[in-house]
Write a structure and sequence with these properties.
This protein is of the alpha/beta class. It has six helices and seven strands.
Length: 166
């Protein structure tokens, strides 16, 4: 994945992660700079393609990747794989892929963590979402956006660890 310094040089000074939680019809995304959620949303999967085009020059794109756990899967999983491929094609291969297990281990230190455990780990780290009159850092995240945020935080942290080690 490289280091924060390498990404700063590639992307012009600041490190931003464009994280994607892909889905068969809708995909969630979060743009994270290490301290602020700059943008977020859940959009029809085809609407994410132009967003990637806008942000590919100033963001490191990381997409959650499908992993095989030996269980039968349905058509939705295969359709999600198609969208991951389309995003990868749009970015001409300049997209990192991260398996869900990597987020679980990084944020919860357990392969058994589920979505609510990951959400709670993010809240413990960044504070409660708050409310409209007193929004917290994660205010407005819902559903799959939490998964995209988990990918963003994990990717950013791993870049930072690589930078410290080098």
């Amino acid at each position: 994945m490289g280091s924060v310094q390498q990404v700063r040089e590639e992307k012009g000074g600041s490190v931003k992660i464009f994280a994607i939680d892909p889905g068969p019809t809708e995909s969630a995304f979060v743009i994270w700079d290490g301290s602020t959620i700059l943008d977020k949303g859940k959009v029809p999967s085809e609407r994410l393609l132009p967003l990637l085009g806008i942000h590919e020059r100033d963001c490191r794109v990381v997409c959650e990747m499908i992993a095989c756990y030996g269980m039968a899967v349905g058509a939705e999983v295969f359709e999600t794989c198609v969208w991951i491929g389309r995003y990868l094609e749009k970015l001409q291969g300049n997209m990192d892929r991260m398996k869900r297990l990597e987020c679980k281990m990084h944020l919860c230190h357990s392969a058994r963590a589920n979505d609510s455990n990951i959400r709670q780990a993010l809240i413990d780290r960044f504070g409660a979402p708050g409310k409209k009159s007193a929004p917290g850092l994660t205010f407005g995240l819902s559903g799959d956006m939490w998964a995209a945020f988990a990918v963003a935080v994990t990717a950013y942290d791993k870049l930072s660890i690589t930078a410290i080690a080098s």
